[in-house]
Specification:
five-stranded parallel beta sheet, two-stranded antiparallel ribbon, 44% helix, 20% strand, single chain
Length: 199
């Protein structure tokens, strides 16, 4: 078992990074790797080279190939990110656009249709939201985000759905409430990953 934690927030003092550290600690002594996309300066721009690789199903740019190797080592992937406009930040979306590509995450052709390729990976989500859970429920924000990521990306590539644990009111909570919410979310994800060790 090997877990890859992917974080997308440019501020190393952010709640995202605090959660990242707490989850890394909770997963010990398991094998854990961190991909801090902002710190690593991952380029999220989908270039003509990415477009060619997408159509060819190979000859990926070197930085994309490096991410493939990292993901191929992982049995579990956790995406940790602040919710921007009811979705993920552009940095994380660009990582998915460039890395979860035809020929690696899935294959698609008119002759054979869709063939998902990430069946060996379980993907967990840890979104950090500014609004409260009631607003997310009333307006369908959580449902929309989960449909977009769980169905539109995870299911499409054949990855197994893991746990999803929202942290709400991230900018309004008292320190005590923040600690409780972070602990709850970290416990939900870490217990799901530890449970897979027993399978």
């Amino acid at each position: 078992m090997h877990t890859l934690l992917v974080a997308a927030n440019p501020d190393p003092r952010s709640l995202t990074h605090h959660v990242l550290g707490k989850l890394q600690a909770a997963l010990q002594p398991g094998s854990v790797e961190i991909a801090d996309l902002a710190k690593e300066r991952f380029d999220p721009r989908f270039t003509p080279a990415d477009r060619r690789a997408y159509h060819d199903g190979g000859n990926y740019p070197a930085d994309v190939t490096a991410e493939h190797r990292r993901l191929e080592r992982a049995t579990d992937l956790v995406l940790i990110f602040p919710v921007y406009w009811w979705s993920m930040p552009a940095l994380l979306k660009g990582w998915i656009d460039r890395v979860f590509v035809n020929g690696w995450a899935f294959e698609h052709s008119p002759a054979s249709g869709l063939q998902p390729k990430l069946q060996g990976l379980t993907t967990h989500l840890l979104p950090i939201a500014g609004d409260d859970s009631g607003a997310y429920e009333r307006h369908g924000y959580e449902s929309a985000l989960r449909t977009q990521i769980e169905h539109g990306i995870i299911d499409y590539c054949g990855s197994r759905r893991g746990s999803t644990a929202f942290i709400y009111e991230s900018e309004q909570l008292t320190p005590e409430a923040t600690v409780r919410d972070v602990d709850r979310a970290v416990r939900t994800i870490s217990e799901a990953i530890h449970a897979r060790l027993k399978e």
